[in-house]
């Protein structure tokens, strides 16, 4: 978050250093400042009150975009795609492994990250709710925790983790409650949730999440019920493997 403050402040400072010569470049520079990723309070109290931006129509548009972003619900923000809503990605970002939720002995919210380059574990942001026996999948650089068991009920909720900002957001619920399900993304386009256990029986149903429409819909069921199911993609086909439930 600090880098976004610094970029904005550096642009303003650079232009003010030679206002007559540099003011014409302000709109072009502000195009690359991640205003939507700054806190709303900072946008209102600092950015909106900056005289340079008040005098520039293009900059006003960027400020309106940022304020609009803050009015959206967390799941809607995932689909609000502009260059200014995508955090900068460091070159050579290290490979990491996430361990999400689980039981200790009850369902937990905590998430740990293992960095292969340093061979160290660290805690990252916790999920919004407790979750174990969930399905995990990566889509468009974000980690989706799908379904699972919260210690009392099998759930149909979905949480989404953005590793670039270390923030979890709540996404659209599935159609069915599922724990011990299998999930996978196909063509880096949609998420599939397959089988699982709803608290009383194993499931043969499956559903698909379309991130563009932000909705789940049921698809063709499997030929048999499967819980504790593993799902993989080979040659653009989805495979579900498990003991029959």
Automatic annotation (TrEMBL):
UniProt entry keywords in alphabetical sequence: Kelch repeat
UniProt keyword annotation of Zinc present: no
Gene Ontology biological process terms from the UniProt entry: protein ubiquitination
Species of the source: Rhodnius prolixus
Name under which the protein is recorded: BACK domain-containing protein
InterPro entries, per database record: BACK, Kelch-typ_b-propeller, Kelch_1
